[in-house]
Write a structure and sequence with these properties.
The protein is 36% helix and 20% strand. With 500 residues, it is of the alpha+beta class. Among the domains are: 156 residues, no CATH class; 74 residues, no CATH class.
Length: 500
């Protein structure tokens, strides 16, 4: 049986290192097809089950003359998304990755050695290079079929992300919690729509995200010259319709966000919807401070009752500063002077931290008396609502960090905002792919709650030797791989999943 291994294009230089006892230590680059991405085979199985890249390819129009096409659209998307999942953020990385037969197999390229390429200069390069992938991304900009042969349809891509996200929600969900947040995406060039944001102190974009737990439902790239909440109502209406279509009108939808989303139009719409509530942060002001002052007196008295009594006995008009840390919660009714159309429930936190006041406020349409909330401890009172429900939204910020740091969602360096939006979506689909791997294949293992960066480092980055023959592609994974048991479990579970 004929076996093909890599042949060096020229005589490789060898490298001598410090001797180990009586043995010399010598290295060269004649090892053949060796990859550091052996665990990418698991990504191929995850994509097979979800058909994610295949579905995503349906969101593009390929104007290329198919008889000349060597890189199928689905393969291109698999190559880009898989590379992001494996930690390759830059298109330049693909000039070397395109020669990797293991990555070619993961992407579904039948000619894994690139021996059937039409041009002689492309022999041995089974995958697309940086220029082809760049044209794919730039196809999100206004299409000119003379130069940009692949056209992206943004509305279809966002609809697919939402569809796959909603499909990933547990089947018997009675309560769905939607977390909205905006974050800064710093810009370091002359990208379209760049704007200096005073709060972040930099030129940036201001993307809008919505997660349900660790499931992304919305990723919208926006310019920074706007309110943080702009577009949230339209996004929420679209997301709500998709959730209702799957779970029916009886499912309870809770919307959670910080004070940047506390806007009357958004709250009014939510209040008009059945089985739908919100819990938003509320920015502090003098009127709220006056309402919360009696609770601060209670907190201070709890910390130093003698000092508070002494101050009262001499008729002190200002509350004395006390040392220590404690908190008291207050139920308030509050309405802004102009922007709100009605009075709403506000929970205030009168906290003294190391002797300093630390007030916080949330506004909510929840009363705690809803039938579905009766058995939920987190809705019992204002304290529980703040500590157990509202503060839990901080986990969404971890999901955004995963996207930004581990999957390079901030790599929006093309000239056009449309192609940068496509990059953001590709990063989000890479997250969705890894999230599916975590949810289905790693449940109950030590990686069940790991970040995508940790999963990549501990499960996907495996040394592997690849041998390609007529009958098979044989991948020899490192014998010293420490998580071989978890790899075997993940493989078994992924192979058992039916194709989506």
């Amino acid at each position: 049986m004929h076996t093909t291994q890599a042949r060096p294009e020229c005589i490789q230089q060898s490298f001598e290192f410090q001797d180990l006892g009586a043995r010399k230590v010598v290295a060269d680059f004649s090892g053949g097809h060796v990859s550091s991405n052996g665990g990418a085979l698991l990504l191929r199985e995850a994509d097979r089950a979800a058909r994610l890249c295949e579905r995503l390819a349906g969101c593009f129009t390929d104007w290329r003359q198919q008889r000349f096409v060597e890189h199928d659209l689905a393969v291109l998307l698999r190559q880009r998304i898989t590379a992001l999942a494996l930690g390759y953020e830059d298109l330049n990385d693909h000039e070397r990755l395109r020669t990797d037969p293991l990555l070619a197999a993961v992407c579904g390229r039948a000619d894994v050695l690139g021996q059937e390429r039409a041009c002689a200069r492309d022999k041995g390069r089974p995958l697309a290079g940086k220029s082809t992938l760049n044209r794919l991304e730039l196809g999100a900009e206004a299409i000119d079929v003379r130069y940009k042969k692949i056209e992206a349809h943004p509305e279809k891509i966002q609809a697919l992300l939402l569809e796959r996200g909603v499909a990933a929600l547990p089947r018997k969900s009675d309560i769905v919690v939607l977390d909205f947040d905006a974050t800064d995406d710093p810009l370091h060039g002359g990208q379209e729509g760049r704007f200096f944001h005073g709060y972040y102190g930099d030129y940036c974009y201001l993307p809008l995200y919505c997660f349900c737990g660790d499931i992304p439902l919305w990723a919208q790239l926006r310019t920074a010259d706007r309110d943080a909440s702009e577009g949230t109502l339209e996004a929420l209406q679209t997301i709500t319709a998709a959730i209702r279509a799957r779970f029916g009108k009886e499912v309870v939808i809770l919307v959670r966000a910080d004070s940047g989303f506390c806007r009357d139009a958004l709250m009014t719409w939510i209040e008009s919807q059945p089985n739908m509530h919100y819990c938003f942060g509320l920015a502090r002001n003098e009127r709220l401070a006056a309402l919360l002052e009696p609770s601060f007196v209670q907190t201070a008295t709890h910390l130093d009752e003698d000092l508070m009594l002494a101050a009262a006995s001499v008729g002190a008009t200002a509350r004395p500063q006390v040392e220590g840390t404690a908190r008291t919660f207050a139920e308030l009714r509050y309405r802004t002077l102009k922007s709100w159309n009605c009075e709403r429930r506000v929970v205030g936190k009168a906290e003294i931290t190391n002797g300093k006041d630390n007030p916080r406020y949330i506004v909510t349409s929840l009363t705690g008396k809803e039938p579905w909330a009766a058995q939920q401890a987190m809705f019992r009172d204002g304290k529980s609502l703040y500590e157990k429900f509202y503060c839990a939204r901080g986990d969404m910020e971890n999901r955004i960090k995963e996207q930004q740091l581990d999957l390079f969602a901030g790599r929006t360096s093309t000239a056009f905002i449309a192609s940068n939006q496509l990059r953001l979506w590709l990063s989000t689909f890479a997250y969705l792919l890894l999230r599916g791997l975590r949810a289905h294949a790693l449940k109950g293992t030590r990686l069940a709650a790991a970040t995508v960066g940790t999963i990549r480092l501990h499960l996907l980055k495996i040394g592997a030797q690849v041998t390609v023959s007529v009958r098979r592609i044989y991948v020899r994974l490192s014998s010293a791989f420490p998580l071989a048991g978890i790899f075997a479990t993940a493989h078994q579970r992924l192979r058992a999943l039916p194709a989506g």
